[in-house]
Specification:
This protein is of the alpha+beta class and about 250 residues long. The chain is built from four helices and nine strands. The chain has helices at about 5-25, 100-110, 120-125, 155-160, and strands at about 30-35, 45-55, 80-90, 145-150, 170-180, 205-215, 225-230, 240-245, 245. It has a five-stranded mixed sheet. The longest helix is centred in the first third of the chain and has 20 residues, at about 5-25.
Length: about 250
């Protein structure tokens, strides 16, 4: 699982991943995080990453319920699983097909690396000293995956209507999931010990896999001849063989 820094770590890692792609394909372009802002055609090529919604992860939404014993006490930590929805906008000079160039770079980068890798997390920590130092997203039981969302024209219209006085620019939606956040409470201790019993339990007894003549598998087993017994766990001290009620040598 991961702690409360998981959403911030995902956003920082996504920004770093896109910035690396921009540096390779569109020199001078910049990736930034936050609400889209109004910008003119003479602006620096810009990819804006805006986390506009977080929803329960459908596949793991029951993980937020902690395991409890019969007496109601928690036996382990609780976890919430989220899907993080991002609006990625492209701002550039229209005459030079700036938004289209940025879109192509981002789409190719996220198709090539559709996961938040450990290397991306470590790089995000290095780029944000003092902010993400305590993150442990790299220890999460599931890798955060990146996949493109689907926003209809009506969805886009509603989304941009809440961005006051910001004109629409070319945008796409991406979702990062699942993002698991574990509670700090590890649960109560088990019931008290009322009786101590010492015993011996044999784990994994001997296993017989085959019997053949001592001369080889192709030779017949004859009366009075030697046999070879093959299996696992047959070299234990004191192990004996009994055939038909009679102890063998």
């Amino acid at each position: 699982m991961s702690n409360h820094l998981a959403p911030a770590t995902v956003t920082a890692a996504l920004k770093q991943l896109l910035q690396d792609a921009l540096d390779a394909d569109v020199p001078g372009a910049k990736a930034q995080v936050g609400r889209p802002e109004a910008s003119g055609d003479d602006a620096t090529p810009l990819v804006n990453i805006f986390l506009y919604q977080a929803t329960p992860n459908a596949a793991a939404r029951n993980s937020h319920m902690p395991a409890r014993r019969g007496d109601g006490r928690m036996s382990g930590p609780s976890a919430v699983a989220l899907d993080l929805h991002y609006l990625i906008s492209f701002i550039g000079t229209a005459s030079g097909y700036g938004p289209e160039l940025l879109l192509g770079t981002v789409a190719r980068a996220l198709e090539h690396k559709p996961v938040i890798t450990r290397a991306a997390i470590e790089k995000a920590i290095d780029e944000n000293p003092g902010v993400l130092d305590a993150t442990d997203l790299h220890r999460a039981s599931e890798t955060v995956r990146i996949h493109q969302g689907s926003l209809t024209l009506d969805d886009l219209s509603k989304l941009w209507s809440v961005l006051f006085q910001v004109p629409y620019v070319l945008s796409v939606a991406y979702t990062c999931s699942p993002v698991l956040i574990e509670t700090a409470q590890s649960g109560s201790g088990g019931p008290p010990v009322t009786r101590v019993t010492v015993g011996t339990l044999l784990m994994g007894g001997p296993v017989l896999e085959g019997v053949e003549a001592q001369a080889g598998a192709a030779a017949p087993i004859t009366w009075g001849g030697g046999i070879a017994i093959k299996g696992r766990g047959l070299d234990r001290s004191g192990l004996a063989l009994r055939i038909g009620g009679l102890d063998a040598d």
